[in-house]
Amino acid sequence: MSQTQLTWYGQSAFKIVTPVGNVLLIDPWLTNPKNPNGKADVANLKRVDMIFLTHGHSDHVGDSVEIAKKTGAKLFAQLDLAAAITTAMRFPEKQAQMDTTPHFGGEVKLLEGDVTATLVPAVHASGLGMENGSTPPYAGEPAGVVIAVKNGPTLYHTGDTDVFSDMRLIGEFSKIDIMMACIGDHFTMGPMRAVKAVKLVGPRMTIPMHYATFPVLTGTPEAFAKELKKGGAKTQLRVMKVGETITV
User: What is the CATH number of the domain that holds 142?
Assistant: First the structure.
């Protein structure tokens, strides 16, 4: 049986390839400063079925519009974010319809049931980064996303967030196999607070993300590992390299 593949492009950008070959991107800023192959990675994307966006900031929306126009990928995002990105950034409207743009808590079957996705809260902001300096439109509330792959893992991408006590409910509603957790500090939780988040969710594996891209993101995987050990968190820490693909 085929397995699920997971690739990290740096910052919060991931690719998931399901056992049947569906391709999902999460917060696809592939051309971020830590990915020297970013432009080639975008150019080499021949198939993308879904683009998941947690919120409207430019380091998460990233290359979404270019990828969507190139591949025909549908958007999975909060309804208000979808409305903002289609009007302000020209994301193809026909690829961002109501059937894939829910609100918090709604479980959505995607790709003929191969994937089930749910938006969950995050503590952050969600304004669109407008390159022309104009006032950004309302882009909904920030989110994380839980993605359950048929015959594969259930993944929780935190988006940008601080720890909050209701994270415990995420782990109660879904047994999380892999948690992609922001650890960079300054704009999100840092290593110490991220450990509290991991303990609330209880994932089998934790992959740190959203660190080192800018100087202010001072949280490190090393500090996170120390805090995990000190806090007694029962999870497997998997630090990925930019561009690395693992089988899960």
Answer: 3.60.15.10
Note down the domain range covering 192. 5-247
Low-confidence stretches of the chain (pLDDT < 50) are: none
CA distances from 40 to 45, 59, 73, 147, 248 (A): 9, 18, 18, 27, 25
Which pLDDT value is given to residue 168? 98
* 129/132 Cα distance (integer angstroms): 9
Token pair for 115: 């994937």
The whole-number pLDDT of residue 132 equals 67
pLDDT in tens, 192-206: 999 999 999 999 999
The total domain count for the chain is: 1
The tokens describing 227, both together, are 């805090």
pTM value is 0.97
Q: Are 167 and 197 in contact (CB under 8 A)?
A: yes
Token pair recorded at residue 44: 């080499």
Asked whether the beta carbons of 201 and 185 are under 8 A apart, the reply is no
| Residue 93: DSSP 8-state | G
